[in-house]
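Case study 2.
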Amino acid sequence: GAVNLTPIVQAFAGVPEPHTIRGMTITFEGLKAGPKTLQHYNSDAVTVQGRIDVNPPSVEYNVGLLSQSPGEIKVENEPAPVEKRTRQVEQPGTIPALTWTLIILTGLAAGALVYFFVIKRLSGGPSTPAARRL
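Prediction:
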């Protein structure tokens, strides 16, 4: 699953004008990509963008040469390690402040609804003159 692009790219760097190569496409047919297969890489000397195909298995790299000095060109074989984030785990039995706030607001809203319903019932219904005529 890992490929060594450095010698391939270095072989095409440094050709004098008008034959200077600034970009190329490299295809590895039959290569099954794995978790360590390079997908993209950028440096001051080269840019690499990979495309993985499953059926038929192949990996295609679009390479841009930013430097024509073969000694400066180096493509890492493996992708950079991804930084793992740690999740904060809540202690069992604790409820976050947002949950408590929502519970209190819901209780207040329900209490206000019951209060206004009871007041309306005790006052004998609608109190406007237009409502009494109906």
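The first helix runs from residue 6 to 12.
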